[in-house]
Amino acid sequence: MKTIVTGGAGFIGSHLTDRLLSEGHSVTVIDNLCGGWMKNLQNAEKSPDFQFIHADIRDKNALRGLFEGADWVFHLAALADIVPSIEKPRDYFETNVDGTFNVLEEAKRANVKRFLYAASSSCYGIPSQYPTPETTPASPQYPYALTKYLGEQLVMHWAQIYNLPALSLRLFNVFGPRSRTTGCYGAVFGVFLAQKLNGKPFTVVGDGNQTRDFTYVEDIVDAFYTAALSDLTNEYFNVGSSGHYSVNRLVELLGGPITYIPKRPGEPDCTFADVSKIQKKLNWKAKNSFPEGVAKILKRLDDFRDAPVWDPQSIQKATATWFQYLTK
Asked: Comparing C-alpha atoms, which of 12, 7, 8 is closest to residue 217?
């Protein structure tokens, strides 16, 4: 298959690119490198079946013609993180909504055979049911979650109206090598691993008993590949690990001292995907246990050498907007 991966220089996108190449497909990565790095594609660049195009999905003219002859499109390009989305909602809307519209239009024009969208479990907000099924009403708590959900709605609408063969995967807490560490205060693994490398205590939010459906990136990639091989369309699926694990358990696996910081508004005490739908309809299930995934990422600890080292004071400053707008 001729495949396209938008956001393919990013964390999940680069792992997906490697998987597609290993399965014998050709891959064109489209990325503007605002949240991805060419170093993530070092292995891919060795393949004659790989092509990189520096382009921004917000620019419909830059995308024109790039999808011709494509069989599969994996749309992962997006802006992430909570605080920047609160501070710059227009940027998030233009990338995650308008950009998705542009990608959909090019995919429709090219008559692609499969369209896979990387959605976010943040669309559920603070759900009342655990594990959380796909029937749970959407309740986004901040602009990132909202714009990712609006992007998903566009994808499902294009599947319904224009018969674009599309599926949306609602990803839970993804972790693994190449996860983004630079820039704003963000994912817990990047924060904790930089602290471990520098001998600093782990900044645990609240009491650390909150749990997350940590899902290893290899399993996420496998879910995308499995979905691409299916003939289903106009459906969305949770993608999780079949379990949930406390932040305290993560700290225990990483090993190191702890300092506690205030609990943040708009964050659920638990994320836990009901994955019965994807297991039933796609026969997919995560293979990596949480301890196995953590052990794999610890072997790549040097990958986090350049990550910023956060402490309670710098976190308080970086998340001031979070508390300002999300405190009820």
From this structure: 12
